[in-house]
Input
Amino acid sequence: MANIYYEKDADRSVIADRKVAVLGYGSQGHAHALNMKESGIDVRVGLRDGSSSKAKAEAAGLVVRSIADATAEADLVMMLMPDTEMAAIYEAEVAPNLSDGDALFFAHGFNIRFNLITPAAGIDVCMVAPKGPGHLVRRTYTEGGGVPCLIAVEQDPSGSAKALALAYADAIGGARAGVIETTFTEETETDLFGEQAVLCGGATALVQAGFETLTDAGYQPEIAYFECLHELKLIVDLMYEEGIAGMRYSVSDTAEYGDLTRGPRVINDAVKAEMRQILSEIQSGQFADEWVAESRAGRPNFHALEAAGHETLIEKVGGELRQMMPWISAGKQSVAETSGGQG
Output
């Protein structure tokens, strides 16, 4: 079983005298920086020249520096830029300003796991990864709670990297909810697999296939949308709150019987075999190589697939139906305002 830590296990004094630089002011960046500031930590935000986030960060009372200057000032640097941009920024502006004894932190292990970034041997390398979007990390902190975090240590020349990671997680509110120990490899591989096979790729492909099965059979697309997409939130919320068994208890007996007997026919051995192949591609680095190459080429395939998705019938019908339900978008603007850009 995993090691789980709470506030009583965290020694805030380990980070109290550190100078922290949060590089990026997007969804996670704004939450980390503001929560740490309000926890009494000496924090500054590092942003690229011309960043649209500079005014937002300064308006929130944060010190803003260039990425190079923020790194040079700090002895703990948290990298919160997009995965495919991080290595170039690290080589140009971060690495030259790090010294032995500094700590380099990440919120996702991609660049370390796939050797896109190789820190010097004298630097602590840690991960603190909240298991929730930045606006939730920020909101729960202001309410006196927190979002569970993962921590990991890749390099520990100081001998105190784990304690420092736990103190960082505590300072952003994670120790209020629980901090789970993992590794860079485990976090990266499971995170990518979850996104591709279940949470994003698997879920959207399942919804699309179900919608198309009904519309191909002659059913109205509006009815197919409600049955295959709209009502998915109800089921996911029940699983989120009560687990799979709790969801099954809450739906009708007819729905539960259909779940138990037909679900395994949809997600069958062939699907699981494809999932294992996807996991293998992640573990081997094939996916990382593909994604980095795609980004360096200007993302032509990515943009083509994204554009094609916008043109599907389910998107057109859904856009029309959501106009009938204004409560769905209630509060959407306020979340966008707090999240900001990538910095």
